[in-house]
Amino acid sequence: MKQRNITVVLVFAVLLFCSGLSSAIDNKKTDTAVDANQKSVKSEADVKHKKTTKIKLVDINSASKSELMKLPGVNADQADKIIAGRPYGSKGALFNNIILPVVSYEALKHKIICNVSKKDFDKITAQAKNKNKKQ
User: What is the DSSP string of 69-134?
Assistant: First the structure.
């Protein structure tokens, strides 16, 4: 009688253990499917984000008048002022030198860059030295 009880208990334990494993495997498959769905959602979001971040930045030291006029808030007169004031040491010089109003500068500051060559840098530093001497 004891052997039969032990056998029944062992069979029951083995069945319980196997059912636990099968449910764990099913959960893992479900988790993997959820992870795959999350990855596809993330990759779609990354693609959309990459498309929106591929904005062509305009270099204020080398852009043509037509390129400058494509920027928000820049008209023909302001584009001429930007070209006349070259070279710039930073894009903030557009605001600091009163070439663009604050509203226009704030609208386009994320769409412009200021690449300075060594020649331009030397010219900017010479201008700054001359300005300091006059004061």
Answer: HTSTT--HHHHHHHHHT---SSTTHHHHTTSS-HHHHHHHTTSEE----HHHHHHHHHHHHHHHHH
The token pair that represents 19 in the structure block = 């059912």
CATH architecture classification, 58-134: Orthogonal Bundle (1.10)
The answer to whether the beta carbons of residues 108 and 101 sit under 8 Å apart is no
% of the chain surpassing 70 pLDDT: 66
Residue 29: C-alpha distances to residues 17, 21, 62, 77, 91 (Å): 19, 12, 56, 64, 53
What torsion do the CA atoms of 65, 94, 121, 53 make, to the nearest 10 degrees?
-70
> How many residues in the chain?
135
Beta bridge partners of 113: 59
pTM exceeds cut of 0.70: no
Q: pLDDT tens-digit profile of 64-113?
A: 999 999 988 889 999 999 999 888 888 888 888 888 888 888 888 899 99
Higher per-residue pLDDT: 97 or 48: 97
